[in-house]
Design brief:
Blueprint (H helix, E strand, L loop, with lengths): L10 H21 L11 H9 L11 H11 L12 E2 L8 H13 L10 H17 L6 E5 L2 H19 L12 H4 E6 L5 H8 L7 E4 L9 H13 L3 E8 L11 H10 L3 E6 L23 E5 L11 E5 L18 H5 L18 H35 L4 E3 L7 E6 L5 H18 L3 E7 L2 E7 L7 H17 L1
Helix pairs in contact: 1-3, 4-12, 5-12, 6-8, 12-14
Length: about 475
């Protein structure tokens, strides 16, 4: 076996690593050869291209041929999120320093479960978590990085469940839930993220134990309906244990009334979690920060850095109001995180999350925060929200469109309405999106509002400007006449 298996301190290994990294950079530079986000191939065409690759040949191809094969059969069918024509999802372009951080993370390959698998990386994560707690007003907060918003939300639901059971003098760590599996209920808006329903299933409570609260005309949680449901559940013997304030719904970017929800959570002694996977970046905007007012009263907050913070997937964390909130996650294994060593100052992050092996994702946050500073992120986030507001106002003035939401963050839902019946307009809006995707290399999203097929832009690229959004509207009008 050749000695060039790894990137090490040896001269030859360093040379091989540098050569292969440079070839990869060159391949990427060749691939990013268009301003469009996609080159138009159909689903069948993508399948044929990828299936043509022999994944495990009898004899290895070597790096050069393998990279060339991937360059020919995979690269052309990937989307390019940095393109100004990519506006479909909460799927951001990546800051260039984020890509550099990913290279460092892969090269060092630290594992974030025990101190002796990453002394420096352990302390970087703790340092970054402390900074996020400071930004969100948690004076004695704590937290850990996760695989994404869904895992952050699952963790919050887990902590809320066990905190309620602890108050009831029940230890869920050693006992089956029994009757509590039927009685414990959580509350989210009817347009909250689906991860809470899945998490309830995973926690042994089921979908039916998640109450979906109505939303108002601005797509925010209706607090009157929330309190009505809580009162009804208590009267019927249920035990409310969690209220979720969605701080940026996936479709509309709407922000639930955080302060009012907080008041209700305190009134009924219910854990409050803010799912700010989307909206957390508003904390960086001087102009829009007040839209998060009251979030510091939450018991925990989900933050996704791979959304409006523009860092590579995946990069999320959950922060909690105080350190003791994480105690249900604590578990000691003699081979990994012995209590005697922790008493000596060896921090083992495995006791703060659901995962054991984790990536050193906090480095991406540290590097990008240092590179951009408060002023850089303020400019990025504010520009994205300003763009959404402009696009909404532009659509609202055009009789060919119906705009549904006055954006609180950067998502705009709209429908082309210059047509006859509902069925025709539903098909037309679908056709517009597919034509944009496959003929023009423009990706926008699709969703439904009150049963109507709608189009959606999620504007996470600060390089977009008002003129390019005006042009997008005109392109859609033109396509509507052609399809």
């Amino acid at each position: 076996m050749k000695d060039t298996l790894f990137f090490t301190n040896e001269k030859e290994d360093k040379a091989v690593f540098e050569s292969e990294l440079q070839k990869t950079v060159n391949a990427l530079k060749d691939a990013f050869d268009t301003s469009l986000c996609y080159k138009g191939e159909t689903p069948d065409g993508v399948k044929r291209a990828v299936k043509s690759v022999e994944i495990l040949p009898e004899k290895g191809l070597g790096f050069d041929r393998a990279l060339e094969t991937i360059k020919e059969n995979v690269f052309p069918y990937l989307v390019f999120p940095p393109s100004k024509t990519y506006m479909a999802h909460l799927h951001s372009p990546t800051l260039v320093e984020g890509i550099s951080a990913e290279t460092i993370i892969a090269a060092f390959n630290q594992s974030m479960d025990s101190w002796d698998q990453g002394p420096g990386s352990t302390n970087v994560e703790m340092h970054v978590v402390n900074k996020m707690c400071e930004l969100f007003g948690y004076k004695d907060g704590d937290g850990a990085f996760t695989s994404g918003g869904s895992q952050s939300n699952l963790t919050a639901m887990f902590l809320a469940r066990d905190k309620k059971l602890e108050n009831l003098k029940f230890d869920a760590r050693i006992n089956p839930l029994g009757d509590y599996s039927k009685k414990l209920v959580a509350y989210t808006s009817e347009i909250s993220h689906f991860s809470f329903d899945k998490a309830s299933h995973l926690l042994g409570l089921g979908y039916n134990n998640v109450r979906h609260v109505k939303v108002d005309n601005a797509f925010r949680m209706d607090v009157e309906d929330l309190e009505s449901k809580i009162k009804s559940d208590i009267a019927n013997g249920f035990i409310p244990y969690l209220i979720v304030a969605t701080v940026g719904t996936t479709d509309f970017g709407s922000i639930d009334p955080i302060e009012k929800i907080s008041a209700i959570s305190k009134k009924y002694n219910i854990y409050m979690h803010s799912d700010a996977a989307y909206g957390s970046a508003l904390i960086m905007s001087g102009k829009y920060r007040d839209r998060l007012k009251g979030i510091e009263e939450s018991d925990s907050i989900t933050i996704d850095f791979h959304k409006m913070f523009l860092l590579p997937i995946s990069c999320s964390c959950l922060i909690t109001k105080t350190k003791d909130y994480l105690s249900p996650l604590s578990f000691h294994a003699v081979y990994l995180n012995r209590e005697d060593e922790e008493e000596e100052g060896y921090d083992n992050l495995v006791s703060k999350g659901l995962q054991t092996t984790r990536r050193f994702d906090s480095l991406k946050v540290m590097l990008s925060f240092m590179v951009r500073g408060k002023d850089g992120f303020d400019e990025i986030v504010t520009k994205c929200v300003d763009n959404a507001k402009h696009f909404y106002e532009t659509l609202k003035k055009d009789s060919d469109f119906k705009a549904y939401n006055d954006p609180e963050i950067s998502a705009v839902i709209f429908r082309y309405v210059n047509g006859k019946d509902k069925a025709t307009l539903d098909k037309l809006n679908k056709d517009i999106r597919h034509h944009l995707m496959h003929k023009l290399g423009i990706f926008i999203g699709e969703t439904e509002v009150d049963g109507d097929v709608c189009l959606k832009t999620t504007l996470l690229n600060p390089r977009l400007d008002f003129q390019s959004l005006d042009e997008l509207k005109n392109v859609i009008k033109k396509v509507a006449k052609e399809v």
